[in-house]
Amino acid sequence: MRGSINDCVGEYEQRDIVHTVRYQGQVIVIDHVPAEVCTLCGDILFKAETVRRIEDIIRTRTAPSQLVPLYEYA
Length: 74
Ligand SMILES: [Zn+2]
Prior knowledge:
This protein has one helix spanning 48-60; strands spanning 12-23, 26-38, 44-45. It is α+β, with helices and mostly antiparallel strands. A hairpin with a 5-residue loop joins β2 and β3. It is globular. The model has no long low-confidence stretch (mean pLDDT 91).
C-alpha cells in the first residue's frame, strides 16, 4: 500500500485532515478525518474502516453540523 503512487521514501504520520468529495455534483466536506499522510509528498491513506465511515456519511446525508463558505476559483 505504501508509496503506491510513486517511489517516495517519505514517512506516513497520523493526522486529522479535511476530506473533500464531490458527490452527485455537490461538494461535501468532512472535517477531522483520521488519515495517514506522507510528510514528503502529501499522499493520503485511509484505513478501510475510515473509508466505510466516509461512505456512510455521504450516503446517509444527514444534516451537516456546519455550513462552510464555498468559493469558485474562476
Ligand atoms: Zn510520499
